[in-house]
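Q: Please design a sequence for this.
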């Protein structure tokens, strides 16, 4: 029997049509969003495709390198080091490691949004966790690839879309899997490795957890790439808009997207999860977020945000967000 889902958080989205030129709630309330299901169609070889990708990833030599550990500015008792490793197609992935000086018992891989990242952010990181903050392929400021990336992800979201194996999101999932492997190799006594990601990182996290076995639990905030048919059928200011424009001219691209639908991946997630979808979000269409949240098939806690990707103003602040994430991660068993 499917575990009961527990839900907290907002019950109504703030009206913001005038700010964006369209309704970022897409006319849907919480009840209708909770009824959104993953796509009915899945490629018949979806699982075998990802099994082949996982097998290819397992044979890679990560060739990881770790720089000197130094004190992290503004974070007493925490050290930071540069890290890099090799991933699919020979692309070098860069990032940061942080660790508390008092010792670690758990690990955490922390995803990022489409703007990449230029430093680690310890918000929500448990005090006994070593964390790896990778920057996936093609994104700033550690894993740029010529002609790819940028702060909006405009090029990244279309990179390699002509085929599932070559698509950027497949490579980004492998980058994430290998981050977990590097962390376990560096700290072989870790009792568990979990995942935390938002937006782009939330969608990639759903794919990485659903189609892999690297993580013991996960947190997905306003996750992207859920239910691509929904994503490209409604207005947005994010990467979905770029994809919709591309699919209009190249409808065959939907074949590739069907292999990287985070809602389909969520059907395969059995580990404990916290998901934070939003009732209104201009960047990541909310039906896709809830398609992921509703499909998770393990113990799931859902904290509904009033608004995602908010840039300030009424309705942006959720005073319970950080506490909810911290409480979920702190409450996980010390041993996986």
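A: Design:
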């Amino acid at each position: 029997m499917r575990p009961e889902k527990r839900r907290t958080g907002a019950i109504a989205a703030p009206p913001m049509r005038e700010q964006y030129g369209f309704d970022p709630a897409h006319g849907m309330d919480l009840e209708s969003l909770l009824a959104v299901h993953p796509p009915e169609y899945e490629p018949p070889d979806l699982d075998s495709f990802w099994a082949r990708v996982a097998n290819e990833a397992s044979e890679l030599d990560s060739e990881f390198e770790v720089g000197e550990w130094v004190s992290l500015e503004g974070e007493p008792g925490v050290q930071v080091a540069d890290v890099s490793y090799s991933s699919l197609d020979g692309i070098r992935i860069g990032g940061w490691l942080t660790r508390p000086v008092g010792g670690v018992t758990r690990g955490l891989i922390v995803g990022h949004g489409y703007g990449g990242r230029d430093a680690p952010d310890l918000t929500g990181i448990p005090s006994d966790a070593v964390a790896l903050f990778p920057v996936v392929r093609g994104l700033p400021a550690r894993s740029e690839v010529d002609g790819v990336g940028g702060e909006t992800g405009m090029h990244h979201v279309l990179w390699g879309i002509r085929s599932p194996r070559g698509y950027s999101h497949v490579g980004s999932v492998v980058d994430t899997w290998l981050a977990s492997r590097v962390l376990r190799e560096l700290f072989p006594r870790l009792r568990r490795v979990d995942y935390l990601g938002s937006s782009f990182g939330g969608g990639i996290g759903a794919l990485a957890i659903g189609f892999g076995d690297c993580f013991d639990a996960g947190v997905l905030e306003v996750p992207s790439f859920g239910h691509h048919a929904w994503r490209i059928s409604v207005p947005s200011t994010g990467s979905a808009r770029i994809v919709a424009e591309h699919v209009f001219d190249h409808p065959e691209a939907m074949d590739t997207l069907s292999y990287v639908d985070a809602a389909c991946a969520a059907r395969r997630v059995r580990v404990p999860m916290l998901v934070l979808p939003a009732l209104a979000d201009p960047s990541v269409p909310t039906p896709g977020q809830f398609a992921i949240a509703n499909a998770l098939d393990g113990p799931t806690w859902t904290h509904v945000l009033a608004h995602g990707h908010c840039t300030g103003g009424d309705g942006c602040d959720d005073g319970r967000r950080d506490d909810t994430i911290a409480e979920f991660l702190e409450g996980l068993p010390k041993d996986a």
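Q: Thanks. Anything notable?
A: The chain has one domain: 20-310+319-329. The chain has a mean pLDDT of 93.
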